[in-house]
Structure prediction request, 253 residues.
Amino acid sequence: MKNIINIFVASGNDVDCRRILNILSDQDEFSIAGVEKDEAGTIIKSAQLKPDVLILDLQPPGMGGEELAPIIHRRSPSTAIIMLCNKDEDNYACVALKAGISGFLLKNVDTDKLAPVVKIVSSGGYYISASIITRVFSDLLLKKKLPELPYNNLGRFYTTTERSIITDIARGISDEEIANHLNYNIGTIRNCLTNIRRKTKLKNRVHIVIFSLIHGLINIDQFEPLLIKPPEIKFDQDKENNPRRKRKTLSEI
Prediction:
């Protein structure tokens, strides 16, 4: 049985609202929880309905998505928010993401991507309009076509260990530091990386991170700097009383 994703739509334009609803109605696993036309109604109804996904299509002069998102999340923390926006600006996308927006789509450019993006953000992922990502990342990184994924199986694409390894790669630490952080043998980390490359069909570590971010397989908020503690120095007489913790092997993952 499919998991039903409850969606709330906030749009101030009747034509745009109908277009959004038509796109969403083609998906059997989507359920429309409600529709609103203004900011006040959106805040009140979101708190009442607590939808899985809120689609914001409220354009100026009203409150922007970056202002609404914190208010909505205080009342419905588990609701993922997708914002449709006319501003094709890198800085505005960053402000929106920091405010709690999970999906940032350019209106009349990315609306056709709405259904897959709903699935991405409902599973805890993020999506930024490709035209903005192209400027955030270099052309060299994004000219290579990233593989497509079956959106109904995102949660099982990586193991928990593989996701942790990719998140550590995004922090910029080495294989040896990843092994120390996750308490695995260095050989285990490298075997896992081989599995990740096989799954993604990508060999470049940066491409793997971008691929994982775009498909919602790792989260932006996990990229904070990681503090690697230096190994503790033990005196010889302490070895028997303080044996070094055994590292895990691939079979224990």
